[in-house]
Amino acid sequence: MTHVRGLLVSVAAILVTYYVFSILRTRSNRLNKSKSHGCSAPPKYPHKDPIFGLDLFLDDMKNLREHQLLDRLKERYDKYVQTFQGVAMGKTALWTNNPQNLQAIYGTKFQDMGVQPLRRDATLPFLREGVVTMDGPFWKHSRDLIRPTFTKTNVANLLAFEVHFKKFLGLMARDGSTVDLKPLLYKLFLDTSTEFFLESKRIQLRRLSILYRDRKWQDAIATAHAFADRCVEKAVSYRVDYLVKQAKTRDKEDQTPMDGDSKKACVLLEETGKETDDRVKLRSQILHILLAGHDSTAITVGNAIFHLCRHRDKWAKLRSEVLAVSDAPLTFELLMERHYLQHIIKETLRLHPVAPTDSRITHRDTILPTGGGPSGTSPILIQEGQIAISSFYALHHRTAFWGSDAAVFRPERWETVRPGWNYLPFGGGPRMFPGQQLALTEAAYVLARFAQEWESCECRDEAWEWVEQLEMTASSRNGIKVGMVWTEERKLAGNKA
């Protein structure tokens, strides 16, 4: 017994010695790396609780309840010269909004940063693994799978979009009464996203609205999964047909994967069905892309109308530009050439990025180019396991980049502005939202069609200022309440319908 006890003590001593040696070696390596790159520590947030950072967390929760978190975050970044270090729920974190650091985090140091430890476990019951929550080869495979869906052939198919838009218009009164566009836009873009990604012509997902109110989480998951599973069965059925077809013919057209030059629409449901018949994986792909895809356009269009109905001159300018094309079809190319329309969309996304904050966790020690030292210009060593937190909302409101009127809706600024890493409405780098062009095209189409349908739109909101509703995305808490003056021709057509 004494011999065994002595052996255990020796083993324990060896393990402790190895553990201490590993810590000392890691610290030494970090010190050497920091010195060789000229790194300095960033400013420290003055925590009352420096261990868990509960003071910062409680302050954020208070601001969230009062619907002013985004502005308070901006004030915090401004106070600490855009980069500072603190504690977020027990983990060391770096808050940074410096464009050079953002370029490193999302671009040049992309391989050193990730999201999986931050997102996967929290969303696993609902989403499982997919492009939104995973890193490494799994993420790359998922990304490559959905990329063909966003070819220009698909994005420019506005005739299919018009079918849904006409149904959307049919839901609106034409007598000048108040309409809240926010829920209607959500329904419109959920319909169009479902058809675009899944080729499903009709959906009934009203119960999914509980996801936006965080009620009965498990029931909401079951509802979402039930909908996705119906699409999964379509994918599995398509896979059977696809494999049978391949077995029967060696025709080159059947064997060549669809690419950007193909005239056949590439539907995500079909592409995932070619890859696997694993129903859980198929469901995950469907939910990930729908989650990432449909909110952004609905919110962006709503926010654009929020400002345009408060700026009659800008609405008139937009309408003049759109009506100048007369009866020409609103094609992809024509929409891209409507410069003021594009400026409105860019300005809307500047003021109100749909995903206003983002976080990354470091997979390995890495160097960020600036933010350290007394001058705030020295490089920073960010250690493995630390979190980097950014606020695109605060970034887009910095007067250093956007002028003294950074908080003002002024699309005309885009006549001269040429942004870089100080404008990230869809993120940046390899993880940038792959459906960016689709979202921008659909937003442009809807705003142009509104300009054709309405002579003017009037603000009917209870509050003049935009108030945040911050969930997974940021939208207008008070909705988008407007009164529309329809063109006489459109008004008569609506009354006949």
Could you characterize what this model shows?
The protein has 497 residues and is α+β, with helices and mostly antiparallel strands. 54% of the residues lie in helices and 11% in strands. The chain has 20 helices and 12 strands. It has helices at 2-36, 54-65, 69-79, 99-108, 116-127, 136-146, 152-155, 158-169, 181-198, 217-248, 252-255, 268-275, 279-308, 312-323, 332-337, 339-351, 392-396, 399-402, 436-453, 488-496, and strands at residues 83-88, 91-96, 113-114, 179-180, 357-362, 366-372, 378-382, 387-391, 454-459, 468-470, 474-476, 481-486. The strands form 4 sheets. Strands 1-2-8-5-3 form a 5-stranded mixed β-sheet. Strands 4-12-9 form a 3-stranded antiparallel β-sheet. Strands 6-7 form a two-stranded antiparallel ribbon. The longest helix is centred in the N-terminal third of the chain and has 35 residues, at 2-36. It is globular. The model is unreliable at 200-213 and 253-266 (pLDDT under 50).
